[in-house]
Inverse folding.
């Protein structure tokens, strides 16, 4: 069995983002790029599955759509333990474009389990995984908080309102994973970092497909009125404010 | 031409979320000089379906069929796209919730319709079609142009008010017949808590962080939640420590919520936490550190020990609510 982990390269989640060119472009100056937090979780889970010899997983591959600048992030994923990587050499213009490129990679070289994080911390779309499955015409399960292989069968927990469903489905499929899929993201050890340098990273060129959406302009959140403070000894005033001014209780 | 709105039902019942979606779709239909058609999959009684008419649904489609009782993304997307074709829908609206995230991306590819994911209001313009949404986990917003002729929008929860626009909609039944083996997703078991207010539905949320010091101190927090009819939440360190269940974790990698009122007890307000709660209409922060970043996001605050302030706050709520 082979697992593909789709990876997005995003600004470190503590970055205060800024925009240039009349607010039309992200100012990449000074940004620390990291593996999208949910993709880090799916990579960790893929490696945990591979660690258990009983699952007979031969390969965990990283797929990424991005320009050469994102190679350090891909190398980091290889250092954490992925076996190899494929980078589609294109600017990831929108989710539809990215999913179309990933689908081409998989059509040429099929995988049994394809993992996508439920969202990327930059555009928060929660879209690439489902789009990819539709391009491939294979099942998808979203909001996956547990994934295991038991007696050769895939077992998944899908979050629903107020609980979860326990389900199975045949391979190949796309699992769109969220928190709970693993405890802590795995970090690269020194040996992994050394080995990552020689692991194969294939670069392919994109297929022609238009993005369907485009960001026209960014906007920074408006600073809101300063916090109104209340006396810790007399929180009654606060409660009155919530009832009469804010009208929320 | 029409606007099709996918309304999820929970065991045959709608929630406020469904009415928000129909209100939104109906207003959008007005902008496009067309009408809003609502659809739901599964068995929903006529009088329940009629409730959607109150918010402007001009027609309601009930799709039922054997095998459609569990969410299988492919068969459901088949059904929605068939209905969208027949109704000549140019825009399809879903919620940006668990269900919408499962279906909307597939629909987007199926119909070659650009997806505006997590929009927080009506389009800024319809020609060109420009939507407004949160990006970088709430650290910025963006105007997004959708170029395709057909569009899919997922609406952020609690971002659109209910608008009454009474219609007397006709109810149309669509029966879905699936080929054998079409449903790939097999549900073996469902584990569900009942009787608890869901975090994503709650209008008031009471949340605790590390400043609560120990899981033993949660009693008053739960009491306050009970008094206010609120759901309970927590910060990531609290769920990581196992003080509270993971389902309560709100923040970037946990649940993203948008209640009317969010109480943060002993939560410092790291960027990752704020990413999950910044869409709340009001944030009340109680923290002993006056420089904690949570106070920059909050409208109301008290500087002090959350554990000491909670009982006083409970008394005040009892007094005022009791009047």
């Amino acid at each position: 069995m082979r697992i593909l982990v789709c990876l997005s390269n995003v600004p470190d989640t503590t970055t205060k983002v800024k925009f240039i060119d009349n607010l039309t472009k992200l100012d990449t100056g000074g940004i620390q790029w990291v593996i999208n937090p949910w993709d880090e979780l799916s990579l960790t889970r893929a490696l945990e599955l591979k660690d258990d010899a009983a699952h007979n997983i031969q390969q965990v591959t990283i797929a990424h759509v991005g320009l050469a600048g994102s190679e350090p992030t891909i190398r980091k994923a290889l250092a954490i333990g992925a076996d190899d990587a494929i980078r589609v050499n294109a600017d990831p213009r929108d989710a539809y474009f990215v999913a179309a490129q990933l689908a081409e990679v998989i059509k040429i070289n099929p995988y049994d389990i394809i993992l996508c994080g439920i969202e990327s911390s930059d555009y928060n779309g929660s879209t690439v995984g489902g789009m990819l499955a539709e391009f491939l015409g294979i099942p998808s399960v979203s909001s996956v908080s547990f994934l295991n292989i038991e007696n050769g069968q895939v077992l998944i927990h899908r979050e629903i309102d107020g609980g979860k469903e326990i389900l199975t489905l045949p391979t190949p499929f796309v699992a769109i994973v969220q928190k709970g899929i693993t405890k802590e993201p795995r970090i690269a050890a020194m040996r992994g970092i050394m080995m990552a340098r020689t692991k194969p990273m294939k670069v392919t060129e994109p297929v022609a497909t238009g993005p369907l959406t485009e960001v026209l302009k960014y906007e920074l959140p408006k600073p809101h009125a300063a916090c109104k403070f209340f006396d810790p000894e007399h929180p009654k005033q606060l409660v009155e404010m919530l009832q009469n001014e804010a009208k929320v209780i | 031409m029409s606007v099709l709105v996918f309304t999820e039902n929970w065991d045959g019942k709608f929630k406020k979320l469904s009415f928000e979606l129909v209100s939104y779709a109906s207003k959008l239909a007005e902008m496009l000089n067309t009408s809003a058609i609502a659809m739901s999959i599964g068995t929903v009684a006529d009088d329940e379906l009629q409730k959607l008419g109150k918010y402007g649904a001009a027609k309601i489609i009930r799709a039922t069929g054997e095998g459609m009782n569990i969410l299988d993304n492919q068969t459901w997307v088949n059904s929605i796209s068939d209905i969208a074709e027949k109704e000549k829908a140019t825009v399809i609206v879903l919620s940006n919730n668990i269900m919408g995230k499962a279906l909307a991306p597939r629909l987007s590819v199926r119909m070659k319709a650009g997806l505006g994911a997590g929009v927080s209001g009506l389009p800024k313009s319809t020609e060109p079609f420009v939507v407004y949404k949160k990006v970088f986990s709430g650290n910025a917003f963006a105007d997004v142009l959708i170029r395709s002729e057909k569009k899919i929008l997922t609406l952020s929860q609690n971002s659109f008010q209910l608008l009454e626009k009474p219609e007397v909609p006709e109810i149309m039944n669509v029966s879905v017949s699936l080929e054998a083996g079409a449903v790939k997703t097999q549900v073996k078991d469902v584990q569900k808590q009942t009787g608890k207010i869901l975090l994503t539905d709650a209008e008031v949320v009471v949340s605790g962080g590390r400043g609560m010091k120990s899981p033993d101190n949660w009693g008053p927090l739960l009491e306050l939640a009970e008094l206010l009819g609120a759901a309970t939440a927590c910060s990531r360190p609290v769920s990581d420590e196992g003080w509270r269940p993971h389902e309560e974790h709100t923040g970037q990698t946990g649940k993203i919520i948008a209640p009317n009122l969010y109480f943060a007890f002993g939560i410092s307000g790291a960027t990752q936490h704020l990413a999950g709660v910044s869409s709340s209409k009001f944030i009340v922060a109680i923290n002993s550190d006056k420089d904690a970043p949570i106070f920059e996001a909050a409208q109301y605050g008290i500087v002090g020990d959350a554990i000491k302030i909670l009982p006083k706050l409970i008394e005040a709520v009892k007094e005022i609510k009791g009047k």
In short: The longest strand of chain A covers residues 140-150. The first helix of chain A runs from residue 37 to 51. Helices of chain A lie at 37-51, 71-80, 95-108, 128-136, 190-196, 236-244.
